[in-house]
Specification:
The protein is of the alpha/beta class and 181 residues long. Helices cover 38% and strands 13% of the residues. The protein contains six helices and five strands, in the order βαβαβαααβαβ. Strands 3-2-4-1-5 form a five-stranded mixed sheet. α5 packs across α6.
Length: 181
Amino acid sequence: MQLWLVRHAQPLVQPGVCYGALDVPANPQATQACAERLAHALPSAAVVHCSPLQRCEQLCEALLRLRPDLASKTDPRLAEMAFGAWEGRTWDAVGQPAIDAWVANFGHHRPGGGESAHTVLHRVGAALQEAQAQTQHGVWLTHAGVIRAANLWRAGGRNVPNAADWPAHAPAFGQWQVLDL
């Protein structure tokens, strides 16, 4: 069984803006191009799980137009990390002291009053556990933070991962990786 972790296309947001759970659209042309590549690559009868944020929903709709054989479900556990009051602000406006406080206690600090990395890890871990129990290939249309959390769980095996080990790498916009479950 495989799990395809697909990152949405480039969002339509100014560079340097914190947009985690901010519901912004993605570039329509880049979304269509990703859907076309993905439609050709996915195995038949995979189940698509989609973040409720529109940049992922756009990709899901484009993919399902190309692959009507796929079933889809919205899963709020696949939403990007929420940055609370930081959402929609530039990182410069957030300020280095606030960012430093987050980094100093990365696992448990709630940036902007939003979610901690620990909270994200646990909701992604629950979704991953459910995916491992499925008999069909799975596809997650999601975000960099969710993909990083899934990779951290996979690296830790059955152990609860430490958010301080948060991976720096995630697929680029409109790209994906495949995990063997």
